Amino acid sequence: MEDLAIFGGPPLLEKTLHVGGPNLGDREALFARFNEMLDRNWVTNNGPLVKEFEQRISEFIDVRHCVAMCNGTVALEIACRALDLEGEVILPSFTFVATAHALQWQGIQPVFCDVEPNTHCIDPGEVERHITPRTTGIIGVNVWGQTCQVETLQEIADRNHLQLLFDSAHAFGASHNGRMVGAFGRCEVFSFHATKFLNSFEGGAVVTNDDELAEKMRLMRNFGFSGMDEVIYIGTNGKMTEVCAAMGLTNLDSFDDFLETNLTNYHGYRDAFRSFPGVRLLEYDDGESCNYQYIVTEVGPEFGLTRDQLMTILHAENIRARRYFWPGCHRMEPYKSFFPHANLLLPTTESIAEKVLLYPTGISLRVDDVTTIGRLMRFLSRNADAISSRLGSVEKNEPEDG
Fold this sequence. Notes:
CATH architecture of the largest domain: 3-Layer(aba) Sandwich
CATH topology of the largest domain: Aspartate Aminotransferase, domain 2
Number of helices: 14
Helix content: 25-40%
Radius of gyration: 22 Å
CATH class of the largest domain: Alpha Beta
Order of helices and strands: EHHEHEHEHEHEEEEEHHHEEHEHHEHH
Shape: globular
Strand order of the largest sheet: 2-10-9-6-5-3-4
Strand content: 5-15%
């Protein structure tokens, strides 16, 4: 125990490992695209690289339209506005707060719904309970690349005359019943933020098979311009730049390499975490495509350390494991003031938010790093009672602030 960094020993790893390190493709290919862009003197406003990026995304997913945007949040805001959402929209609280903000920003009331315990995705049975005369839509969130019960949600939406869209920020490259994520609902939204499986520095997109909806969103992302001087619709500036498209295209070229690395890391964690109790690794369906971008665990009482104690110990060892979506959107402002008793309707969300811990993965990890983390976890499991007791003593002896 004296070797643990939390008790004064040196960190187990010299280099800090993060959950969300960027996947980076071939630099020479990226710089070649930059040079082509500069030679053309065309750096934004729907340039050739953006058009190529949109075409390749559409082909990859097998949908008719990809509308590239400056980031995933703006893409979600534009999708909601293009679908004429108003009143109330049902979504999970167990999601990144941007999903709720995209609604609240436009004066739409987010109605938080509980999730399924195994997938952490929105629970269709709970969706039904939250539908009111003011409800206009449902947002399903494909958390961790796991997919919602798409068909059930679509049936609920159709029966109640509601719009259905999906926040698929985590799910690029995933499939549902053999179809690529991106082809469901009225539309789906991707994030290409630096920490996502496919990144374009910053970026996002809405993908859809709806011709009219796609045209509407293309107008909206460019101030409503139709042609040089004619504005025919209200809009904003949601355009993706050529620089970001260059990065997206370069990383698309490395898709298979990123996937192989993530899959290797996932298998390493899966094998390691089977050797001790109390930490459940969320396992992916081998029958579906997945990007394996997230190593997700739930820490239970059998482990002997709480989730937050474990996270503190790992951070000291330069393993930046993270609580995700904690404590839930319903416990963040402004929502906790709007809905102070929302927790009473979200028991599964509350439980999951207190247990989830994500581990580093991606191309910045080596196979040896996963092995080292596994060894550390086994040591912590075997010595959990003594470590917990000593952590309590350390906390009692810490001086008060001020």
